[in-house]
Design goal:
Layout: H1 2-5, H2 9-27, H3 37-46, H4 59-71, H5 74-96, H6 102-110, H7 120-125, H8 129-149, H9 153-167, H10 173-187, H11 195-217, H12 223-230, H13 237-266, H14 279-303, H15 310-313, H16 319-326, H17 333-360, H18 364-367, H19 370-382, E1 391-394, H20 396-405, E2 411-412, H21 426-432, E3 434-438, H22 441-451, E4 464-471, E5 477-487
Parallel strand pairs: 1-2, 1-3
Antiparallel strand pairs: 3-5, 4-5
Helix pairs in contact: 2-5, 2-6, 2-17, 3-4, 3-20, 4-5, 5-6, 5-8, 6-16, 6-17, 8-9, 9-11, 10-14, 13-14, 13-17
């Protein structure tokens, strides 16, 4: 309490903002009856304690699994998601203080409340590798700045550790590293003569090395996921997908721009750009802020495949700092409070939008009646066999919730993009049998024949129709029709 007595009022408001953000966006997900698919995937992947997953390096899975294992509660997943956001905010603030005064540094964080990546997206998708990136990328940028300005041994070591950990979370870390490398080549070439730079690189490589060896062992099969996503279906994809990607980046930042514009109008400040800064720091922001976006765009134009907009969201953490740095505005106490109130209004609007959507939608992704469906499927199995249902195959958005929430936690067949699932004992599966469930009869057949290697190609599969209802909080329901097929245990009659 003595500490807070000596803190100026704006800083207290900033602490309150962080607390409110944490509480609001940790709680909104509880409107759902099941965790988002990304979080369920992470929990399931992490349970194998392996050095990789079908899509990503292992860090996200480990964190999701241990969080769920420790608390056995959905709220813990939403809470850890927002903890990463808050720590990311803190490092954005620390970096902002290197360029801006105290009030502007705090506001450069606060106006990010308007960026959907920090609110709506994390509220809807819960915990995933992108959320971890929202924390870890600002940390990398902050320690990179400290390394190029202070050149302390400890900063280089921390940069190496955090970079290695970031690569263990998501390969896209390379895009920020490329940005930093380009900047160093232009403005800080003597860094390549610094022994601590190489120590930092070696530390990062050592941390990432176990996953590299894992990739070699499994023929780099996670990259099949990216290959599939980026494979163009027509020449139009090379144009349309990048345009959609650009548009969605603008949309996700619209709230931040709106809050900042309101402040500029309130202060009657012009929108004239200010380039009266050191050239190297102007390019520090331009390169770190936009090169990842440009690299995504180039990749989309060349490959022509599906570009998921949220691939770019985590790289906009410098937006608030750049606005105050390049488009300065006077911020006194009144202006600070005005901007804070604007951010709360935007937070409320986004919260009500997402909360209403989650409450009224009749979507299996957020309101899957897991207990009812799992009991039915176990009943279908029990009608034929007196052994427990141990394996589920098919569409993971149907099967993962049944595995995580189901009382017997059956294993599921993961999509490993043409490779056999390295975490499944197929001999044991053959002995125990599998229940395959998917959206159409054709998909049930395709899933069974492509993912269960002991089935003959000419195996006759006759999927059975199954219906269930999904209800929203108003009691309104929507009927879903799925299909299932039981591959019998080999020791059954």
């Amino acid at each position: 309490m003595n500490f807070f007595d000596n803190v100026k009022i704006e800083k207290k408001y900033f602490y309150v903002f962080l607390a409110v953000h944490l509480i609001v966006w940790s709680c909104v997900g509880l409107i759902r009856t099941v965790l988002p698919t990304d979080a369920l995937e992470g929990i399931y992947w992490g349970s194998f304690m392996d050095l990789g997953t079908p899509k990503h390096p292992p860090l996200f899975g480990w964190l999701a699994y241990f969080t769920y294992l420790l608390f056995k509660n959905d709220y813990a997943i939403y809470f850890i998601s927002q903890l990463f956001i808050i720590f990311g905010f803190i490092y954005i603030y620390k970096l902002a203080k290197c360029f801006l005064d105290e009030n502007k540094a705090m506001l450069s964080v606060i106006i990010l409340e308007g960026c959907w990546a920090y609110s709506y997206i994390t509220g809807y998708y819960g915990f995933n590798p992108d959320v971890i990136m929202l924390f870890i990328l600002p940390v990398i940028a902050y320690y990179f700045y400290q390394c190029i300005t202070r050149n302390k041994k400890s900063d280089w070591i921390i940069l190496g550790i955090i970079t290695g950990i970031s690569f263990l979370n998501k390969y896209q870390t390379a895009m920020l590293i490329i940005s930093m490398f380009i900047w160093a080549c232009i403005f800080k070439r003597d860094v390549f003569k610094n022994i601590f730079f190489y120590i930092s690189v070696i530390i990062a490589f050592i941390i990432f090395l176990p996953h590299i060896l894992w990739l070699v062992k499994y023929d780099f099969f996670p990259f099949m996921y990216f290959s599939g996503e980026l494979t163009g279906r027509s020449w139009l994809n090379h144009i349309i997908e990048p345009l959609i990607f650009v548009f969605m980046q603008i949309v996700v930042l619209a709230g931040t721009f709106l809050i900042y514009t309101a402040l500029k109008l309130k202060q009657q400040s012009s929108f004239k750009i200010d380039l009266n800064h050191e050239k190297k720091f102007i390019w520090f922001f331009l390169l770190l802020g936009f090169v990842p976006f440009i690299l995504h765009l180039i990749m989309g134009i060349i490959e022509g495949g599906t570009m998921r907009p949220r691939w770019g969201y985590e790289f906009w953490f410098l937006t608030g700092i750049m606005l105050f740095y390049f488009f300065p505005v006077n911020v006194d106490k009144k202006a600070f409070v005005y901007t804070l109130k604007s951010s709360y209004i935007v937070m409320l609007i986004i919260f009500l939008s997402l909360g209403t959507l989650l409450a009224v939608e009749k979507n299996y992704r957020s309101r899957y009646p897991v207990e009812h469906v799992f009991n039915d499927l176990k009943g279908f199995w029990a009608e034929k066999y007196n052994t427990p249902l141990k394996y589920l195959g098919g569409y993971i958005e149907w099967t993962l919730p049944l595995s995580i929430y189901g009382d017997t936690h059956p294993k599921v067949l993961l999509d490993t993009y043409g490779y056999l699932d390295p975490w499944t004992d197929y001999e044991k599966m053959k002995k125990d049998g599998v229940l395959v469930v998917d959206r159409t009869p054709e998909m049930v057949i395709a899933q069974a024949l492509s993912k269960i290697p002991f089935l003959e190609e000419n195996t006759k599969i006759d999927p059975i129709e199954y219906k269930f209802n999904v209800k929203n909080v108003l009691g309104q329901s929507r009927e879903y029709t799925v299909y299932y097929y039981i591959i019998p245990p080999v020791n059954s009659d």
